[in-house]
């Protein structure tokens, strides 16, 4: 197979020149020296294979993944794959860490002017599994790629409010719903050929920016004076909830990226992305 005409202006030739990474498309070049790959049907589609997560070898006819390959710009296809990917994550495939439910040890937000610190501990977060893919972008600044996720989360945790000069913190149990947290994740992804002669994506450090579409809703327990005092402070400054929610969402998204980093080190690109010059 010879690389056909390239249609876009922004293309970068990467490692070993075996691949062309072009506006989000992965193209193979001189990849077929050993003849046609066995796992392709004439129309280029692969049938859904049974799962086998171990021992991925070159030339295997069985994909290690329970979802079909997607073109990198086919957001609908990627949305379906992402859903399955989250289930694989929560099942711990490839050594990935479950993200739903997940315990975030502690989150702290300080208000220097009010001399007040809020700490949320032993936060139990659920809902990450239903994260939706909003957007996929390539060719951002410095050749970075990006992804925008939308997530609804439900969490519980031990909230304490410390005010300077007051010996004891106020304590309450917080239950919070985060609806429509938008995570904008950008990273540098390089393609590298492994010793097994397969191509892998190596994900560099990520940058994550969170934006809440609305202020999270919450309630405090028990019905105590402490809870009442904390509630008053939160009502006065709803941005505290925003901060807490952003920290939690960011922590989960970092885990998701770490998981994908592990995944992409273990699974060759061809199992989840359709190549640009594939029929
Ligand atoms: C976290 O919450 C989920 C759902 O409410 C629950 O099933 C799970 O046991 C909790 N985990 C911990 C460690 O409390
Ligand atoms: C996400 O962040 C990137 C880089 O900072 C920026 O170019 C892009 O516009 C952002 N996208 C959204 C939807 O906010």
UniProtKB/TrEMBL annotation:
<keyword id="KW-0732">Signal</keyword>
<feature type="compositionally biased region" description="Basic and acidic residues">
    <location>
        <begin position="33"/>
        <end position="46"/>
    </location>
</feature>
<feature type="signal peptide">
    <location>
        <begin position="1"/>
        <end position="24"/>
    </location>
</feature>
<dbReference type="InterPro" id="IPR038606">
    <property type="entry name" value="To_sf"/>
</dbReference>
<feature type="region of interest" description="Disordered">
    <location>
        <begin position="33"/>
        <end position="60"/>
    </location>
</feature>
<protein>
    <submittedName>
        <fullName>Uncharacterized protein LOC118276102 isoform X1</fullName>
    </submittedName>
</protein>
